């Protein structure tokens, strides 16, 4: 593998794209300090250029090259959760190109906790890193804009084909959904804002800094930063997808049968296991296991020629919040509205 890391670094330094595994999902990596390399990421994903990218760092020691005015609460979170699935939004330094921040004065940064990602970042830093020795790799999830994030190397190839020069294969991502994003970019970092729920919960954050981060409320005078993960329609399959409560499953699936429609079911409880859908994926009935398998299961159901993907809804409690968030956006982003016209 060490030759592969050397090759990956050469490619990054030559302004090419390299996909790599993180503990959350696979990222599509580029030299974060080079606007030309960053432009290739937007082109490959089909993503609007005003959506900022997360910059991945080899360690917390690199943070002050990218962020300025770093509040104490940020250092406390770094100490507690890095390397790990937590992205911090902070004020950028003047060296950070606007290409990577989507034109904003803030920057999203994290140190990933995957051995392949860390080895890549460290090899990169040892080789002098990126332009100006900044040593950051910009990496959004390695999917086409709005689609399901990849959790295996094969998913990345399906999504991006030849537009990525190299895909480092680290097997299946252990967390399976994207990092928690906390905005600390206001003076003193407080109050912290939760821009995207993830594996690290608001309660865990509060246990470190003593303040519970809240979802920003849209409204007059509240400026919500642009976060593509915050778009109402995102992480979506191409097949129409609907969230259905466990008790409603028999009726919905039965109606599909009567109308000769193919129905794929993503379930988690024993009750749902006995229902007759055309294809079924069962995930563990606990949030961490469910999150780990979620995107691969949606991809499979999406590829099986179903007319509708029915997802057994998850409990409405805080342990399931990150999964519920992704399911809601996936249902909105799917062609469910078209389904009504079938
Ligand atoms: O787990 C993850 O975070 C994965 C892996 C590859 O690290 N990355 C990921 O990247 O999910 P992406 O680009 O698909 O989603 C990152 C989110 C986007 O919604 C982006 O808008 C937001 O982070 N973001 C990045 N910088 C930001 C900033 N300065 N202000 C607000 N949001 C920001
Ligand atoms: Mg994404």
Automatic annotation (TrEMBL):
<feature type="binding site">
    <location>
        <position position="179"/>
    </location>
    <ligand>
        <name>L-threonine</name>
    </ligand>
</feature>
<feature type="binding site">
    <location>
        <position position="196"/>
    </location>
    <ligand>
        <name>ATP</name>
    </ligand>
</feature>
<dbReference type="InterPro" id="IPR038385">
    <property type="entry name" value="Sua5/YwlC_C"/>
</dbReference>
<feature type="binding site">
    <location>
        <position position="139"/>
    </location>
    <ligand>
        <name>L-threonine</name>
    </ligand>
</feature>
<keyword id="KW-0963">Cytoplasm</keyword>
<dbReference type="Pfam" id="PF03481">
    <property type="entry name" value="Sua5_C"/>
</dbReference>
<dbReference type="GO" id="GO:0005524">
    <property type="term" value="F:ATP binding"/>
</dbReference>
<feature type="binding site">
    <location>
        <position position="106"/>
    </location>
    <ligand>
        <name>ATP</name>
    </ligand>
</feature>
<feature type="binding site">
    <location>
        <position position="24"/>
    </location>
    <ligand>
        <name>L-threonine</name>
    </ligand>
</feature>
<dbReference type="GO" id="GO:0003725">
    <property type="term" value="F:double-stranded RNA binding"/>
</dbReference>
<feature type="binding site">
    <location>
        <position position="149"/>
    </location>
    <ligand>
        <name>ATP</name>
    </ligand>
</feature>
<dbReference type="GO" id="GO:0006450">
    <property type="term" value="P:regulation of translational fidelity"/>
</dbReference>
<keyword id="KW-0548">Nucleotidyltransferase</keyword>
<dbReference type="InterPro" id="IPR010923">
    <property type="entry name" value="T(6)A37_SUA5"/>
</dbReference>
<keyword id="KW-0067">ATP-binding</keyword>
<dbReference type="InterPro" id="IPR050156">
    <property type="entry name" value="TC-AMP_synthase_SUA5"/>
</dbReference>
<dbReference type="Pfam" id="PF01300">
    <property type="entry name" value="Sua5_yciO_yrdC"/>
</dbReference>
<protein>
    <recommendedName>
        <fullName>Threonylcarbamoyl-AMP synthase</fullName>
        <ecNumber>2.7.7.87</ecNumber>
    </recommendedName>
</protein>
<dbReference type="InterPro" id="IPR005145">
    <property type="entry name" value="Sua5_C"/>
</dbReference>
<dbReference type="GO" id="GO:0000049">
    <property type="term" value="F:tRNA binding"/>
</dbReference>
<keyword id="KW-0808">Transferase</keyword>
<dbReference type="GO" id="GO:0061710">
    <property type="term" value="F:L-threonylcarbamoyladenylate synthase"/>
</dbReference>
<feature type="binding site">
    <location>
        <position position="141"/>
    </location>
    <ligand>
        <name>ATP</name>
    </ligand>
</feature>
<feature type="domain" description="YrdC-like">
    <location>
        <begin position="2"/>
        <end position="200"/>
    </location>
</feature>
<keyword id="KW-0547">Nucleotide-binding</keyword>
<dbReference type="GO" id="GO:0005737">
    <property type="term" value="C:cytoplasm"/>
</dbReference>
<keyword id="KW-0819">tRNA processing</keyword>
<dbReference type="GO" id="GO:0008033">
    <property type="term" value="P:tRNA processing"/>
</dbReference>
<feature type="binding site">
    <location>
        <position position="56"/>
    </location>
    <ligand>
        <name>L-threonine</name>
    </ligand>
</feature>
<comment type="function">
    <text>Required for the formation of a threonylcarbamoyl group on adenosine at position 37 (t(6)A37) in tRNAs that read codons beginning with adenine.</text>
</comment>
<feature type="binding site">
    <location>
        <position position="110"/>
    </location>
    <ligand>
        <name>L-threonine</name>
    </ligand>
</feature>
<feature type="binding site">
    <location>
        <position position="47"/>
    </location>
    <ligand>
        <name>ATP</name>
    </ligand>
</feature>
<comment type="similarity">
    <text>Belongs to the SUA5 family.</text>
</comment>
<feature type="binding site">
    <location>
        <position position="235"/>
    </location>
    <ligand>
        <name>ATP</name>
    </ligand>
</feature>
<dbReference type="InterPro" id="IPR006070">
    <property type="entry name" value="Sua5-like_dom"/>
</dbReference>
<dbReference type="InterPro" id="IPR017945">
    <property type="entry name" value="DHBP_synth_RibB-like_a/b_dom"/>
</dbReference>
